[in-house]
Amino acid sequence: MSAQSAPRTSPGNFFEDFRLGQQIRHATPRTVTVGDVALYNALFGPRFAAQSSDVFAQKIGYPRSPLDDVLVFHIVFGKTVPDISLNAVANLGYADCRFLKAVFPGSTLNATSEVIGLRENSNKKTGIVYVRSQGFDETGDTVLDYVRWVMVRKRDEAAPAPGEKVPELTKTVEAAKLGGACPKINVTAYDNVLAGSQYRFGDYKVGEKIDHVDGITVEEAEHQIATRLYQNTARIHFNQFAESKGRFGRRLVYGGHAISLARALSFNGLGNAFHVAAINGGRHVAPLFAGCTVFAWSEVLASAEVPERDDVGALRVRTIATKDRPCSDFPLKNADDYDPAVILDLDYWVLLPR
Amino acid sequence: MSAQSAPRTSPGNFFEDFRLGQQIRHATPRTVTVGDVALYNALFGPRFAAQSSDVFAQKIGYPRSPLDDVLVFHIVFGKTVPDISLNAVANLGYADCRFLKAVFPGSTLNATSEVIGLRENSNKKTGIVYVRSQGFDETGDTVLDYVRWVMVRKRDEAAPAPGEKVPELTKTVEAAKLGGACPKINVTAYDNVLAGSQYRFGDYKVGEKIDHVDGITVEEAEHQIATRLYQNTARIHFNQFAESKGRFGRRLVYGGHAISLARALSFNGLGNAFHVAAINGGRHVAPLFAGCTVFAWSEVLASAEVPERDDVGALRVRTIATKDRPCSDFPLKNADDYDPAVILDLDYWVLLPR
Amino acid sequence: MSAQSAPRTSPGNFFEDFRLGQQIRHATPRTVTVGDVALYNALFGPRFAAQSSDVFAQKIGYPRSPLDDVLVFHIVFGKTVPDISLNAVANLGYADCRFLKAVFPGSTLNATSEVIGLRENSNKKTGIVYVRSQGFDETGDTVLDYVRWVMVRKRDEAAPAPGEKVPELTKTVEAAKLGGACPKINVTAYDNVLAGSQYRFGDYKVGEKIDHVDGITVEEAEHQIATRLYQNTARIHFNQFAESKGRFGRRLVYGGHAISLARALSFNGLGNAFHVAAINGGRHVAPLFAGCTVFAWSEVLASAEVPERDDVGALRVRTIATKDRPCSDFPLKNADDYDPAVILDLDYWVLLPR
């Protein structure tokens, strides 16, 4: 080995490096703190009362304010990037994402992934990797469990496919599986005025659409700060020198940034949807870049009782985020394809007090 | 009701929605943390020792470092925005603003407002709303009490004025009302060297002017991060898509950002003015935009004993902030009007150790 | 004294204001918190496990995650700026920088400096000031000790030189002086997978070079936020109005920002180098501006046992940071001079588990 070529740095895994059933423990455990919470608030401006006020949280049944669910998702997701998606061409989708235990400042998060599917693309240049990733807290309890699939480059086009299996994916998380991260809520102590919305679970109708009205412009510094906060190492978000020669000619905003913006914007219309209990599926329909203003609207897809819970009910919500396009007319698709302004199509379950 | 038109989102109050004597409890209680403090420090760079060091704070009489007073103001103010000023054309002024109790990390803040004045403008398109807003901590104690008045649009020009009363406003907070948020200060333990200034209360002369010398340039990401940190929802600060078609063609920096910058800049010249005890009045004289560099100068308007306090004295200070204009010649007015570089004219009381 | 000319603000020290042996206590003690840690993580994206996870830190022997060493350096350095380098033309170098005690959230840092050398330049316009600066925690223990020298303007060219002495500087910190800030490490509890690197102390060879591969683009908001977080008052980093007329026509990024970026980038290749024990020397070879992308590579200069420590070993590493120039070919010098892309040449000791 020449002194100049020590392979101390990890190039990430290429498609042919994965194996079906492979178990990966991800690096960089992370203690989450009120500092992370403050930064998350400052970057997205969420206003859900349970996450904002320890006093409000305690009155309704939490020991203190839990972390925003989407922040937990981003931190766990970030840990998986160096092993799963450093050589990804595209992040294709999420499924069966369940928030299983509330996370509080002071907790330490770890992550693992299992390779549950592999399929080489016909061009032999890339393949699709399906992983089930899990986040754990310092007690070893699972706080988050989800499937994602990504298109990953091959290092060597001539390498044989490492396996072939397309897993069956859960289309929608069953209502019975919701609520593990949500304590029994004291609905009489839940103060609608402080929460900022008079609408509870029973007030929403299946099929109704809500324009979340507000828009937030994304700056380069903001999405870089956010993505580094999650220790997400995907270079496309940080490296203008490389990206100036790349696909878009510029840095791509981390897809999760749009999810956080959409969730924060959704407060205006879904203010009592205090907990994201599950994500059924999500697609980053188009890339987001700094300078764009993100808007969002939602449709209530379904309403469900959560078994053995008389405190909360679940709404299945589809939230569409757009760039530089207000949502008063609920833009979604033109003919067969998405409206070009749509950047995110997210299908998830939220819990609201009854 | 059509599914498409569910009024789940709040359009904010218009002029005709207010009533004299109306009491408003604002949404989104907020637990403040050391994370918020770190962000505030990083955005403005304040160096007042009592707020920077728990050890310094404890030596002089605080249980630990209190939050910067202006940060407390911004958080309370932010809560009032969705109800009071979402449809504001202009934030006209502040009066009788008193800091009544120190706020520490871990406290949870709430806010209420009472409508104390209403006056329709002659064009019938807008009216002025006067509110007395109060911030409370988790014990129910009032931490902040202030009046502000804003010009608010009418939804319907034909709507009758909801009332007519111009309240009598306190021009200057009396010295006897200062100091509620300031414990008894141990002036011998107060270390001028660590505090960064050799000038105490008695060293300042009424009429003296101080150029604070330094300047700080504002970036879009910075003011957006700050304003979201306060959960301030005024869209003009975040939404470039909408504002590109608006009055200024761009996002307006939250007026409070200039107050925080001016306060941080004032350290250089007023380093021992460790506590803002009251704001007598303030005007956002001209808009501030990202890319501008803010400078500031101050004049000592008055010097006062605080009754029954031999530890601290009060200086009434007028601080003028400018954009892209150093203040060595103390710019203020040209003929009758403000110098076009002036953005802020703030009249307030600070406490200094004797 | 006219009311307009009160010298309340400090213009900083000029060359002729310093004296050999002068002791300076710096202002603004600073309690560091998890908020500062979160911001530091968000700005630089470090992934060293000991600083990221309280659980990991505890398993290997720390009471909890210590602050990133470079963050401690920046905070102590920041305190020295108003007294030492406000009138600096250039920050010339560092030597004999030793991290002596781990710093944890909740600690309060102070700083002092002693003038250990002075040399007027032949042009009589500037002189070089050498200081030994120390950072202390709230118990009075020294956490950091280093020498730096800066070229400082004279106020008055006719003023006599205040002294003449060029101190002898330590070229390399002895290995015996390393490790004071590092507890006894439990090497069997040190988990390489969680730490993100399989290479321990014994795996690195003297002379090997490591391209850290990744690049990070710097935004104006980011370096301003970072530098204010450290309460560093050097105006060249914040004041675009003044700098637009200055040497570079724009704001200069604080040199320490490049150190933090290089340290964070070095994780990819030196992931188990969990502690910076000393900085032997450092040069800011060229200025860094916002918009540039920073890359880095390292060479292992030496490998050393730390006396009486069988848990950790020390690597002397030279890390070179560049702007807008990937480092796969290890750019350093062209003929006699630095490659124009090089911005930082840093020589330091890191500790790794055996």
Search tags:
homotrimer, 354 residues, alpha+beta, twelve-stranded antiparallel sheet, two-stranded antiparallel sheet, 8 helices, 14 strands, 19% helix, disordered N terminus
Question: Can you lay out the helices and strands and say which pair or pack?
Answer:
The structure is a homotrimer of 354-residue chains.
Chain A: E1 23-25, E2 30-31, H1 34-44, H2 49-52, H3 54-60, H4 69-84, E3 88-99, E4 108-120, E5 126-136, E6 142-153, H5 192-195, E7 209-211, E8 216-217, H6 220-229, H7 240-243, H8 255-265, E9 275-284, E10 293-305, E11 312-323, E12 333-334, E13 337-338, E14 342-353
Antiparallel strand pairs in A: 1-4, 2-4, 3-6, 3-9, 4-5, 5-6, 7-10, 8-10, 9-14, 10-11, 11-14, 12-13
Helix pairs in contact in A: 1-6
Give an account of the 3D structure.
The structure is a homotrimer of 354-residue chains. Chain A is built from 8 helices and 14 strands. With 354 residues, chain A is α+β, with helices and mostly antiparallel strands. In chain A, the strands form 2 sheets. In chain A, strands 1, 2, 3, 4, 5, 6, 7, 8, 9, 10, 11 and 14 form a 12-stranded antiparallel sheet that branches. A two-stranded antiparallel sheet of chain A has the order 12-13. In chain A, strand 4 and strand 5 form a beta hairpin. The longest helix of chain A is centred in the first third of the chain and has 16 residues, at 69-84. Chain A is globular. Chains in contact: A-B, A-C, B-C. Chains B and C meet through helix 1, helix 3, helix 5, strand 7 and strand 8 of B and strand 2, helix 1, helix 6 and helix 7 of C.
